[in-house]
Amino acid sequence: KGKEIHEDIVSRGLLEKDIVLGNALVDMYAKCGALAKAQEVLEELSTRDIVSWNAILSAYLDQYYAEKAIQTYRQIYEEGMEPNDRTFVIALQVCCILKEMDDHVSDSEHRICPLELGRAIHSDARRTFFDKKLFVLNALISMYAKCGTIKDVLSMFSASSHVDKVSWNTLISACADHGLEEEALQLYHEMHMKDISP
């Protein structure tokens, strides 16, 4: 059905005039699992914006195509596009997937270091001040926690003036997962002291 609608849009010449329509097509193909077609439509759009790129980036994340997602993230910069908070969150989630994959393969199969990649993405976010956005901050906390750099997470968390329940929960969970039970309990008590209900 989506292909039929796409053909109708093309036959009416609507695609060249409407970036929202183009983005919707990329998103439709991506959500239907036709990633090659989504990529093809993206490349054929006369104009693209960050919404177009986020749609395909998100699809690669959902399908666990981590390397394709990272290529797409780099391509955004190559096209001179500015990522937004959604872009950074997706890219950081890809780092978490890479870490999961990394835990299940031997060193010889290792290709991309999730922590190095995450730090590079963090640097990109910092340069555009998106690292201050709560949505991105929580993704950073999650990525660093997943990669096992808990001390960095704790210092980043304590330096931030805007954290929410998601931030607290991610940090407590990360401490527990990495054998830092006392720190996890301390954070739980701090939540109570700051009147944040668990």
Structure commentary:
The chain has 198 residues and is mostly helical. It has helices at residues 2-11, 19-31, 35-44, 50-62, 66-78, 85-102, 114-127, 134-146, 150-159, 165-177, 181-193. The termini are far apart. The model has no long low-confidence stretch (mean pLDDT 89).
Give the oligomeric state of the chains in this entry, treating copies of one chain as homo and distinct chains as hetero. single chain
In what range is the share of β-strand residues? under 5%
Helix content: over 70%
Question: How many helical elements?
Answer: 11
Compute the number of strand runs. Answer: 0
Mean pLDDT over the residues:
89
Uncertain segments: none
Compute the CA-based radius of gyration. 20 Å
String of helices and strands: HHHHHHHHHHH
Class from secondary-structure proportions: mainly alpha
Morphology: elongated
Tell me about the largest β-sheet.
none
Distance between the termini: 45 Å
Detail the topology: elements first, then pairings:
Layout: H1 2-11, H2 19-31, H3 35-44, H4 50-62, H5 66-78, H6 85-102, H7 114-127, H8 134-146, H9 150-159, H10 165-177, H11 181-193
Helix pairs in contact: 2-3, 2-4, 3-4, 4-5, 4-6, 5-6, 6-7, 6-8, 7-8, 8-9, 8-10, 9-10, 10-11
Task: Describe this protein with a few key phrases.
single chain, 198 residues, mainly alpha, 11 helices
Give me a quick take on this structure.
By secondary structure, the protein is an all-alpha fold. It is 71% helix and 0% strand.
